[in-house]
Model the fold of this input.
Amino acid sequence: MQQKKYQWMDPVKVKPQGWLKKQLQLQAEGLSGNLDKIWPDIRDSRWIGGDREGWERVPYWLDGFIPLAYLLDDEDLKARAKKYIDAILERQQEDGWICPCTQEERANYDVWAAFLICKVLVVYENCSKDERIEQVVYDVLKQLLKHISMGTLFDWGAARWFECLIPLTWLYERRPEPWMTDLAFVLEGYGVDYEKLYRSLSFDRPVVNKYWTFLNHVVNVAMAIKSRAEMSLYTGEDPDAFAVSFYNKLMEKHSMATGHFTGDECLAGDVPIQGSECCSVTEAMYSYEELLAIGGNPFWGDLLEQEAYNGLATTISADMWTHQYDQQTNQVECTRMDVSKIPFTSNGGDAHTYGLEPNYGCCTANFNQGWPKFAWSCVMQNAEGLSVMAIAPVEVSANIAGANVTLNVDTQYPFRDAVKLFVNTDKAAEFAVSIRIPGFAKAANVTVDGLKSCVEPGTFYSLKKVWEGTKTIEVEFIFEAELVDRPYGMKVLRRGPLFYSVPIASEWEKIEYEINGVVRKFPYCDYDIRPVSEWRYGFASDTFTTAFHELPEMPFDREHPAITLEAQMYPLDWQMENNMCKAAPESLTPVGEKVSVKLQPYGCTTLRMTEMPFIK
Done:
């Protein structure tokens, strides 16, 4: 069996710092840290003996809640996670079956939930070192092989077969047995072959609304990017070959300005008023994290940062109490739309509003993994030493070459352009410390310890030597603001990992109610959000002024962003239609004089204009 190029760190040795720690604290204090108290699908789930949803929602939530608890070293969160794990383990059947259904229901129970709960149990073992977990996962997966051999995979299990390889590989590395490789190939044989489908089918945007299919469901797509990489550990194939070609094909037809892809719920083209589901952002992030670990290609680190600092940050409110189902690149209003006039391929009229569970509750449970797993994956380890895969403030500890080593990544990136690495050892030891130089940096602007770096952007800068005591490495990027081409003659403004938008001041209307036993009540109520400032602009110049501001208490604060860009812009005739802006302005002729407009990071906006024309 092949080995991953990098290994995820022991999560108890990972300590988020600075703004990243604050973001995790906001998550713990917000919706994520309270779902087990307020949301029936978690609080009263069949997984723990209740009568509510007994499929993916508890596992989705735990997949983020568990690492959140341990990264923050919060005893209350840990105890609540253990309560759920204990209840789940207590209900495991003698033959290994663990999902909450009767014997008679098994044949029609979609085993995607079994894959997911095994992933969760592995996360829990990594965090807690609970000695029960290995045998539980062993029994679940061995029974699963028998179950699907008699009944095959279907629905979500068939679409997401490769997710089961994650706990299976973890188990195989601990106690390899022949049946485990059998299970890997049975899963592959029964599952959707995305490589063949995306080589053969066009996957254009559907021409009618209310179009839905498993094959280009955006969350399946986000997960499937890593499918062949996970399987490469068994086959020896290139872990990047399919992933890179798949991503490039998505960008040809379904790109968003931030480097993500549309899907509301199915792949939706490249018009900036189409949406992309929150779950697709968190699952794309996890795919990029796994691709970084398996193959070590720094390209995935670029995309991971873009997803986290733009798409994830904006689709959840700054206080992390409410979220969207779909985010839009050009999003000028978030109010309920007439179902006959929605632009989404299959989602409802409330999908882009902020709330407890707009459109559907999967994202309510699944947004939880985004920030914790990002923090966990920022630094990884291999035989050579430690490597910074995504740049954020974090400290990690490890034993390397017999020495106790601490690596502190001291930075306000992405809101600043520099990072300091503090390397401390309790005795002399030889190893490498590496940092990914972002591919969107310019070689002429990258310095290491004040000197021009000889490393190219999009690669790792590595320093291997004998380390002793405390040493410092200072890296600076000095990003430049630039306009990037988008389809239909539009442009997007980018500086480093951040994309910039015209922020639209807004008024929020609380909507509190109860339906199907689920209460929406402030601070987890729903909202209609309407614009109260101008947004109809086109770029008038390709020169921009950067201003740095104090980092706010909420890292992605909409009112007090840590960095802004001043732009010259022309007002345009750009109309609203069906509670949103039209895809393009009526005319490129300005309707007024050039004005100065302050743009702020996409992730620091709720209502915004991001893709706009350049007026020559």
Q: What stands out?
A: The two ends are 57 Å apart (CA to CA). The first helix runs from residue 18 to 29. The first strand starts at residue 7 and ends at 8.
